[in-house]
Amino acid sequence: MSDLANRNQCNAEMHDRCEPDKPVALTLKVGIIASTVALTVGPLWGVIALCVAAGQLATYWRGRPIKVMAIMGIGMAAYTAIAVAVIERRDAPVPNAGWTSAFEHLNGLALTAVAVVAASNMLTPVRRRI
């Protein structure tokens, strides 16, 4: 066995020993994500982010991870974009400061969508090539 292969095997073994318990680490990340959304966007959106993250955790514990958070985040962002286009077309809000009141109800959804997609990237396991 070459020296490089031996070193890679040792690094892989060390990584396995140093890796924290996966369910505990994922649960902590989900709690941090939901708390951040609740503090920055609002408590209702924090609960929604927590529910989406719980769905993500359930797929990890089931053994076949599905990117629930990414799917939901992209869905929320798409809904926001479509709603903005419809409101812009239908209501034609005033260009100066009147448009902010027309789209204010979508702010929480858009911010939560960004946070959920970013959190999905944090929860995606990184695969190392050896």
Give an overview in words.
The protein has one domain (3-123). The longest helix is centred in the middle third of the chain and has 24 residues, at 68-91. It starts with a helix and ends in a 7-residue tail after the last helix. The protein has 130 residues and is mainly α. Helix 3 packs parallel to helix 6 (107-123) and helix 4 (68-91) packs antiparallel against helix 6 (107-123). The chain has helices at residues 3-18, 22-40, 43-62, 68-91, 99-103, 107-123.
Supply the key terms.
single chain; 130 residues; mainly alpha; 6 helices; elongated
Number of helices: 6
Mind describing the biggest β-sheet? none
Number of strands: 0
Radius of gyration: 20 Å
Poorly predicted ranges: 14-19
Average pLDDT value?
76
The percentage of residues in β strands lies in: under 5%
Order of helices and strands: HHHHHH
Helical residue percent? over 70%
Oligomeric state of the chains present here: single chain
Write down the overall geometry. Answer: elongated
- Class by helix and strand content? mainly alpha
| Overall tally of structural domains | 1
Distance between the termini: 14 Å
Write the layout of secondary structure elements.
Layout: H1 3-18, H2 22-40, H3 43-62, H4 68-91, H5 99-103, H6 107-123
